[in-house]
């Protein structure tokens, strides 16, 4: 894909002390943290973008939507939608050197509510995402056993429905049959049987609460000092998953029946390309995988040197992300092929699980029946923990950077205390997901706490930058950093194709919302209403701030609109006098031009 996109020049790109010192910034960023090394930044971005969804979501979405044929809409959606938005956020953060809230006074002040919405969404993500990491930590601890506890049906949590078909002949599998791995997950880890649903979620599981406490302890000491500490931690958390993926890929390829899984994964079903849902899934997958709109890319790139080549970073990290998703499919489906061989059924009969169930039931079940099961279980759950931690680092850094940049007088010298308070809030907000019915809460927050809200935020962000701030002004910003303006391809994508890409996902998601279920539990109508309220509770800050800004700005309505839509600072105020920029007329600075 990189070969088909226009190239940029990159004068003076680098992370040396001389480079950074040569470009003084506005007062707010004189003492701003900077990445110690370029690789700290790249690994942080890759770590955020490559998360658990790459392992559990992409393989399922791929085979469900036509196998190899799905790669066509996936690549097209990446090239024309995901990567341009990814590049745009990296460029915005690097140029303005500030977080998701205060950046809007440099772009279009009336859209400042987008920053607050991003922070609320990031909080919702932290309420459930870290609980999934805590489940993985529980499994990791349970894996230190010569016989993995989800191998057989001889445990206290097992029921008469538990059926172990590995190594046993003439086993009858019925609709009520449950594998040892499924009962370990639902009855020992989650204890779902002690909850009747969202109306009665039961008590808090102290074992999971302890696991979550350990996760947040790691998170705190990784983030408390800023990017200089988190940039070192990601050298482990971002690279270790690739080592484990490679080991699991080699092991999976040597299993009997592995080829059946690979064929099932990649066999193209060309007729699927005529279905609208396939293109919607491709668009949603690339958006949530790359992660524009979450404020993380703005935050991480704001610590870059001004002349860093953010174009190259966008291409490299996007490619790594997409290739990781693709390779993860082989890791998953070689094992699913092995399970189908052992069960003597078709691959599609064992590939029905998706989401967390794929990682906590299907894959552990296969591992339990391999040679060296303890070793492979340990490294698999280490991989899951590190994949999750990277994304948590990014999500919370987006909040931290946004708040500290918006309120520097209160928090700039109290980062450690603010991070501690934020982690405590996230921990307390996660308690409902640690109950016996916590998995139901996790599913609700995952669907509605992020879902359409973050896509709508990304849509408004693209509109605000391309149409209100102006594509010509934004192109000048990129030229100031890279020495060359973005080509026609990027400008057309930013102005028209990428916003249309996001609008397409939003409309399709709202028109064809499937019923929400988890295992045998169907979510009641009132819970769906609660879900929509949760989703609106983040998005509502955008119109609220617009009204607030218009009401409190003095002057006539026309004057108020002019003030609210005009950036408070222009390029010359921030960087022009130190960058040997080409002269940019004041007319260009104050006029939004789309093309």
From TrEMBL:
<comment type="similarity">
    <text>Belongs to the sodium:neurotransmitter symporter (SNF) (TC 2.A.22) family.</text>
</comment>
<keyword id="KW-0813">Transport</keyword>
<feature type="transmembrane region" description="Helical">
    <location>
        <begin position="113"/>
        <end position="141"/>
    </location>
</feature>
<feature type="transmembrane region" description="Helical">
    <location>
        <begin position="41"/>
        <end position="59"/>
    </location>
</feature>
<feature type="transmembrane region" description="Helical">
    <location>
        <begin position="279"/>
        <end position="303"/>
    </location>
</feature>
<keyword id="KW-0769">Symport</keyword>
<dbReference type="InterPro" id="IPR037272">
    <property type="entry name" value="SNS_sf"/>
</dbReference>
<keyword id="KW-0812">Transmembrane</keyword>
<protein>
    <recommendedName>
        <fullName>Transporter</fullName>
    </recommendedName>
</protein>
<dbReference type="Pfam" id="PF00209">
    <property type="entry name" value="SNF"/>
</dbReference>
<keyword id="KW-0472">Membrane</keyword>
<feature type="transmembrane region" description="Helical">
    <location>
        <begin position="204"/>
        <end position="223"/>
    </location>
</feature>
<feature type="transmembrane region" description="Helical">
    <location>
        <begin position="366"/>
        <end position="389"/>
    </location>
</feature>
<keyword id="KW-1133">Transmembrane helix</keyword>
<dbReference type="InterPro" id="IPR000175">
    <property type="entry name" value="Na/ntran_symport"/>
</dbReference>
<feature type="transmembrane region" description="Helical">
    <location>
        <begin position="488"/>
        <end position="506"/>
    </location>
</feature>
<feature type="transmembrane region" description="Helical">
    <location>
        <begin position="526"/>
        <end position="548"/>
    </location>
</feature>
<feature type="transmembrane region" description="Helical">
    <location>
        <begin position="71"/>
        <end position="92"/>
    </location>
</feature>
<feature type="transmembrane region" description="Helical">
    <location>
        <begin position="235"/>
        <end position="259"/>
    </location>
</feature>
<feature type="transmembrane region" description="Helical">
    <location>
        <begin position="315"/>
        <end position="340"/>
    </location>
</feature>
<feature type="transmembrane region" description="Helical">
    <location>
        <begin position="417"/>
        <end position="442"/>
    </location>
</feature>
<feature type="transmembrane region" description="Helical">
    <location>
        <begin position="448"/>
        <end position="468"/>
    </location>
</feature>
């Amino acid at each position: 894909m990189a070969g088909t996109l226009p190239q940029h020049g990159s004068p003076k790109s680098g992370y040396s002390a001389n480079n950074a010192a040569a470009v003084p910034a506005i007062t707010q960023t004189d003492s701003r943290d900077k990445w110690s090394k370029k690789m700290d930044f790249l690994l942080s971005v890759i770590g955020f973008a490559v998360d658990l969804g790459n392992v559990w979501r992409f393989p399922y979405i791929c085979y469900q939507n036509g196998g190899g044929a799905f790669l066509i809409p996936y690549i097209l959606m990446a090239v024309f939608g995901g990567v341009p938005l990814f590049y745009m956020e990296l460029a915005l953060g690097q140029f303005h050197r500030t977080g998701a809230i205060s950046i809007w006074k440099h772009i279009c002040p009336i859209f400042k509510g987008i920053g607050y919405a991003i922070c609320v969404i990031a909080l919702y993500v932290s309420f459930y995402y870290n609980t999934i990491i805590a489940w993985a930590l529980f499994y990791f601890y349970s894996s230190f056993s010569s016989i993995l506890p989800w191998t057989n049906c001889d445990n206290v949590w097992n029921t008469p429905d538990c059926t172990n078909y590995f190594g046993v002949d003439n086993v009858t599998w019925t609709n009520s049959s449950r594998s040892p791995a499924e009962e370990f997950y639902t009855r020992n880890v989650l204890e779902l049987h002690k909850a009747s649903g969202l109306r009665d979620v039961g008590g808090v599981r102290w074992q999971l609460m302890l696991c979550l406490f350990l996760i947040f302890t790691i998170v705190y000491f990784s983030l408390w000092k800023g990017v200089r500490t988190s940039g070192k931690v990601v050298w482990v958390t971002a690279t270790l998953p690739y080592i484990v993926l490679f080991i699991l890929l080699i092991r999976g390829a040597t299993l009997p029946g592995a080829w059946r899984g690979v064929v099932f994964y990649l066999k193209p079903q060309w007729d699927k390309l005529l279905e609208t849902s396939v293109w919607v899934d491709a668009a949603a997958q690339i958006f949530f995988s790359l992660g524009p709109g979450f404020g993380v890319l703005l935050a991480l790139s704001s610590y870059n040197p001004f002349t860093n080549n953010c174009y190259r970073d966008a291409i490299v990290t996007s490619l790594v992300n997409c290739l990781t998703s693709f390779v993860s499919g082989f890791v998953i489906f070689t094992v699913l092929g092995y399970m189908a061989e052992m069960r003597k059924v078709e691959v599609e009969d064992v590939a029905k699980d998706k989401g967390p169930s794929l990682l906590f039931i299907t894959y552990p079940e296969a591992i339990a029946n391999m040679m060296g099961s303890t070793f492979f279980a340990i490294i698999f759950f280490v991989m899951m923990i590190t994949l999750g931690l990277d994304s948590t680092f990014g999500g919370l850094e987006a909040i931290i950077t946004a708040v500290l940049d918006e309120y520097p007088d209160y928090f700039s010298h109290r980062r450690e205390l603010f991070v501690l308070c934020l982690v405590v809030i996230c921990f307390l907000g996660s308690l409902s997901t640690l109950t016996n019915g916590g998995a139901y809460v996790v599913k609700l927050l995952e669907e509605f706490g992020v879902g359409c809200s973050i896509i709508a935020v990304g849509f408004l962000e693209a509109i605000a930058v391309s149409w209100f701030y102006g594509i010509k002004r934004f192109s000048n910003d990129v030229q100031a950093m890279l020495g060359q303006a973005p080509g026609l391809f990027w400008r057309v994508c930013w102005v028209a194709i990428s916003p249309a890409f996001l609008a397409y996902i939003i409309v399709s998601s709202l028109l064809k919302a499937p019923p929400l279920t988890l295992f045998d539990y169907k979510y009641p109508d009132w819970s769906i209403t609660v879900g929509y309220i949760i989703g609106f509770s983040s998005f509502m800050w955008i119109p609220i701030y617009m009204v607030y800004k218009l009401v409190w700005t003095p002057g006539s309505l026309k004057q108020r609109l002019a003030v609210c839509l005009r950036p408070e600072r222009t390029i010359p105020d921030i960087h022009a006098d130190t960058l040997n920029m080409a002269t940019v007329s004041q007319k260009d600075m104050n006029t939004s031009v789309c093309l």
